[in-house]
Amino acid sequence: MAKNWCIGIIGGSGLYDIEEIEDEQWLAIETPWGDPSDEILCGTIAGVKVRFLPRHGRGHPIAPGEVNARANIDALKRAGCTDILAVSAVGSLREEIEPGRFAVVEQFIDNTRQRASSFFTSGLVTHVSMADPVCERLSKMAVKAIGAAGGKVATGATYLAMEGPQFSTRAESLMYRAWGADVIGMTAMPEAKLAREAELPYALIGMTTDYDCWRIDEDGNPEAAVDVASVVAQMQENGALARAALVAFIEGLPKTRRASPIDTALDNAIITAPEEHDPALIARLGAVAGRVLE
């Protein structure tokens, strides 16, 4: 069934506001999972409803491992979002993905260890497919939008999600390359998993800030390690391009939103028998899974 777009934008490091949003209003949304990272900036771009949430909060007070991804996704769903386009700062694990180039992510390797990664616990056991973790439709539109904004883009990237907040050791960086990862970051997992559980199509634009610490110079010596100063400088440069790409993305949306298979990701995913459902958990899942629990 066709419906109107309402795009949730999750802003990563260096992207804490979008000046191009019209009729803007910051809205506080309560969730049963705790507080989201910040209020949600509600408004429109080119007549399309937009809901913007800075992942680390305005001013970046929230560490990667302390981002309440469950509250963030729940809040965006409550705000009426039909789809999510996330933006994240990433390090590069490939020579051809140089700082300043954006990478549209296709796959994830989740190497986080301490984060709540599901809305569904005992009392409503649910297994959604993550074989194809991003929305192909949104990803293709993101690639086109980055080009329209004048940016360089890598496609089909695999994102390695690490716990942080420390950067990688050299051994880890080399291992991640051997695993087939192309970029590395600290926040897209479990965010992408939770978006799928909430039946929200999700795409991720990685803004490359640096090469991770795997590189060797011409003399065979390790190159200088990643430092925050150089990352911040590149983040600021990336921010303007990211905002332009987001506007181009919104402006390029089809007039009508066709249904996505992800809209019904929970169909046939719940395994717990109805008589064993936990009423307290069911109550918390009203926004995320109300469609299948009514």
Number of helices: 7
**Percent helix:** 25-40%
Q: Write down how many β-strands occur, each being a DSSP E stretch of 2 or more residues.
A: 9
Report the C-alpha radius of gyration, rounded.
19 Å
The CATH superfamily appears as: Nucleoside phosphorylase domain
The class by helix and strand makeup works out as alpha/beta
Listing every helix as H and every strand as E from the N terminus to the C terminus, the arrangement reads EEEEHEEHEHEHEHHH
Quick structural summary:
With 294 residues, the chain is α/β, with parallel strands linked by helices.
Tell me what you see in this structure:
It is a single chain. The protein has seven helices and nine strands, in the order ββββαββαβαβαβααα. It is globular. The model has no long low-confidence stretch (mean pLDDT 94). α2 packs across α5. The longest helix has 24 residues. The protein has a five-stranded mixed barrel. With 294 residues, it is of the alpha/beta class.
Chain-wise SSE layout:
Layout: E1 6-11, E2 22-27, E3 40-45, E4 48-54, H1 69-78, E5 83-92, E6 102-111, H2 136-148, E7 153-162, H3 170-179, E8 183-185, H4 188-197, E9 202-211, H5 228-251, H6 279-284, H7 286-293
List its salient traits.
single chain; alpha/beta; Rossmann fold; 7 helices; globular
